[in-house]
C-alpha cells in the first residue's frame, strides 16, 4: 500500500514508513534520545531527498518532545528558567541554521554538506561514546571504577562573567556557555534534522553540572521550543516539510518507543552507552561509504529552479 508524499514528490509504502518510525522510536525509547540523528539518515538512505528528510523529521521531534515535556512537568523535574535560556538561544541558532540551509540548497550543495556533516559529527560522537563505554565496562570488570568528578567542579566555566542563578538546578554559573550550547544545538537541528538531546544531555551533566534528575526534562523543553520554531521556519521559508511523512513517522514512533523503553530498563548503563555509540558510529560510516562509493548512475538529468 503506497502513500504519496506531496513535498517529497514520491510514493512510499505506508508500512515501510510506519516500520521506520517504529524502529527509531524503539531505539529512542531504549537509549533515551530523540532519534532524529537516526531517522534523518534512514529517510535519506530510503531515497527521500536530504532537504525534505531534514525538515520533515523536525515535526516528528516536536511531537515526541511535547509528550515528554508534559510528563516531566508533572514530575516537577524541569528547570524552566534554564530551559528558557536554552530555548531562546536555540531559536537564534535555528534561524541561522535555516538561513544556511536555504543558501546551501539554492547553491545545490545541501546534500553534500549534510553528508559531510553527518560523517564528521556522528563519526566523532560515536567514537567518543564507544571509547568511554568500553573504558567503563573494562574498569567495572577489573573492579576499579572510573573516577567521578564531584558536583560543583566547573573548571574554567567558574571564571566566566555574566553569572545567572538557576534555582531549580541549584546552580550559579555564567550564562555564556548556556547560550552558546543552546545556539549550537539549534543550528545543528535546523541544518541536520536532529533534536540534539544526545549532545545536550551529557553537556549539561558533565560541563554545566546540572543535576541528572533535571537534565532530561529541561533538554526536552529546549528541543520542543527550538524544533517547533525550526519546523515553522522550514515550512514558511523553504517549503520542505512533508506533513504526511511526518504524521506516518509519528504514529510508528509512538508505538516503538513504548517497547524500547521496556528493553532499555533491563540493560546496564554502560552497555546502553556502548550500543548507542556503535549505532551512531555505524551511521556515520554509512554516510562516508556513500560519499566515496561509485553511484549506480554516473549522470542524471534534473530540472534546475528558475529554468
TrEMBL record:
First-listed, main subcellular location of the protein, grouped into a coarse class: membrane
Places the protein is found: Cell membrane; Membrane
One of the record's GO cellular component terms: plasma membrane
Secretion signal span: none
Membrane topology: Multi-pass membrane protein
Entry's transmembrane regions: 12-39, 82-101, 113-134, 175-208, 240-260, 272-293
InterPro entries, per the entry: TM_pro_TauE-like, TSUP/Inactive_protease-like
Source organism superkingdom: Bacteria
Keywords, alphabetical: Cell membrane, Membrane, Transmembrane, Transmembrane helix
Entry's family note: Belongs to the 4-toluene sulfonate uptake permease (TSUP) (TC 2.A.102) family.
Protein name: Probable membrane transporter protein
Organism: Pleomorphomonas diazotrophica
Amino acid at each position: 500500500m503506497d502513500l504519496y508524499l506531496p513535498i517529497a514528490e514520491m510514493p512510499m509504502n505506508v508500512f515501510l514508513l510506519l516500520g521506520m518510525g517504529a524502529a527509531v522510536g524503539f531505539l529512542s525509547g531504549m537509549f533515551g534520545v530523540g532519534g532524529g540523528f537516526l531517522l534523518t539518515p534512514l529517510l535519506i538512505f530510503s531515497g527521500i531527498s536530504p532537504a525534505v528528510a531534514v525538515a520533515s523529521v523536525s515535526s516528528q521531534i516536536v511531537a515526541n518532545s511535547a509528550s515528554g515535556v508534559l510528563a516531566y512537568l508533572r514530575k516537577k523535574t524541569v528547570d524552566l528558567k534554564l530551559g528558557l535560556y536554552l530555548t531562546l538561544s536555540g531559536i537564534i541558532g535555528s534561524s541561522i541554521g535555516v538561513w544556511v540551509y536555504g543558501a546551501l540548497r539554492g547553491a545545490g550543495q545541501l546534500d553534500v554538506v549534510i553528508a559531510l556533516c553527518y560523517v564528521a559529527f556522528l563519526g566523532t560522537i560515536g567514537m567518543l561514546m564507544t571509547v568511554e563505554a568500553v573504558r567503563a565496562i573494562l574498569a567495572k570488570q577489573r573492579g576499579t571504577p572510573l573516577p567521578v568528578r564531584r558536583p560543583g567542579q566547573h573548571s574554567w566555566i567558574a571564571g566566566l562573567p555574566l553569572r545567572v542563578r538557576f534555582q531549580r538546578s541549584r546552580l550559579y554559573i555564567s550564562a555564556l556557555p548556556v547560550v552558546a550550547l543552546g545556539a549550537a544545538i539549534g543550528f545543528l537541528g535546523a541544518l541536520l534534522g536532529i533534536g540534539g538531546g544526545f549532545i545536550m544531555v551529557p553537556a549539561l551533566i558533565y560541563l554545566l553540572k546540572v543535576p541528572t534528575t533535571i537534565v532530561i526534562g529541561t533538554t526536552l523543553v529546549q528541543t520542543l521550543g527550538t524544533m517547533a520554531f525550526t519546523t515553522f521556519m522550514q515550512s514558511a521559508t523553504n517549503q520542505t516539510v512533508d506533513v504526511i511523512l511526518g504524521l506516518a513517522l509519528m504514529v510508528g514512533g509512538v508505538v516503538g518507543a513504548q517497547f524500547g523503553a521496556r528493553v532499555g530498563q533491563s540493560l546496564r548503563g554502560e552497555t546502553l552507552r556502548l550500543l548507542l555509540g556503535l549505532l551512531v558510529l555505524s551511521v556515520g560510516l554509512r554516510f562516508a561509504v556513500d560519499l566515496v562509493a561509485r553511484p549506480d548512475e554516473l549522470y542524471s538529468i534534473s530540472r534546475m529552479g528558475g529554468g
